[in-house]
UniProtKB/TrEMBL annotation:
<dbReference type="InterPro" id="IPR036397">
    <property type="entry name" value="RNaseH_sf"/>
</dbReference>
<feature type="domain" description="Predicted 3'-5' exonuclease PolB-like">
    <location>
        <begin position="62"/>
        <end position="224"/>
    </location>
</feature>
<protein>
    <submittedName>
        <fullName>Uncharacterized protein YprB with RNaseH-like and TPR domain</fullName>
    </submittedName>
</protein>
<dbReference type="InterPro" id="IPR012337">
    <property type="entry name" value="RNaseH-like_sf"/>
</dbReference>
<dbReference type="InterPro" id="IPR019288">
    <property type="entry name" value="3'-5'_exonuclease_PolB-like"/>
</dbReference>
<dbReference type="GO" id="GO:0003676">
    <property type="term" value="F:nucleic acid binding"/>
</dbReference>
<dbReference type="Pfam" id="PF10108">
    <property type="entry name" value="DNA_pol_B_exo2"/>
</dbReference>
């Protein structure tokens, strides 16, 4: 039962990703061909490989991480705070800083990672990019040989599915129906690459990523039938 989990033991997270290169023509000929093959089913005849490249950020082989936001509860007596921070900049440093956080503060058996659709997207993406960057994978992300009940991850999408594996509910929809303040600001996921490459406004992306992280924590509280966080309880560090 999720009600029995100590909130202090959960690291909530969200990532933002973009295509590894700003545009299709920046790829070498072999990568262009591989992109063509990788996406032919999704594109069908509607888009050329070049036109479809704006979506490359959803594949770890063709995308990269530009921000990881994390949040965690600190509960002492009747005082509850939720601390949020972000790693951004050069991808290898983002991954190193995130890895250090997990290894130094969330590496014990009781610790859990939690995101929305994180088992299908965020966690595999982070692990794959660590391999590509030739970095060691923290034990919390290395799932090889682990049984399903040994995997130290929570996923608010999975919790909402209740075993209905064909069901998908977006973070935005779930916050709406559960009465959680909307995490979305002035951009959505489809605009992140434009904001990153054209507007070069990483601060805007960090704010967006942190709002999603807070929303995941709020949904988790709702699933436990607990009071939502108020603004004064959220600390940005």
């Amino acid at each position: 039962m999720i009600e029995k989990i100590n909130l202090n033991n959960i690291l909530f997270l969200d990532i933002e990703t973009v295509p590894e290169e700003e545009n299709f023509n920046s790829l070498d000929a072999e990568m262009q061909s591989l992109w063509d093959l990788k996406t032919q089913y999704q594109r069908k005849d509607e888009f050329s490989p070049e036109e479809f490249y704006e979506r490359a950020g959803i594949w770890a082989e063709f995308g990269k991480i530009i921000c990881i936001s994390v949040g965690f509860f600190t509960i002492k007596g009747d005082i509850r705070n939720f601390r949020v921070t972000s790693f951004f900049g050069e991808e290898k440093k983002i991954l190193k800083d995130f890895s250090n956080l997990i290894n130094n503060h969330f590496n014990q058996p009781q610790h859990l990672l939690c995101g929305h659709n994180s088992k299908e997207f965020d966690i595999p993406f982070i692990a794959r990019r660590m391999i590509i960057n030739q970095m060691p994978i923290p034990d919390k992300l290395n799932l090889f040989g682990k049984k399903p009940w040994e995997i130290p991850h929570l996923d608010t999408l999975e919790l909402w599915k209740f075993g209905d594996y064909k069901h998908f509910t977006s973070l935005k929809l779930l916050t709406k129906i559960l009465g959680v303040p909307s995490p979305k600001g002035d951009i959505d996921g489809s605009q992140v690459a434009h904001v990153f490459y054209v507007e070069k406004d990483i601060d805007r992306i960090v704010t967006y990523c942190e709002k999603d992280t807070i929303a995941v924590a709020q949904i988790f509280l709702r699933l436990r039938r607990e009071d939502l966080l108020i603004e004064d309880e959220i600390i940005h560090v």
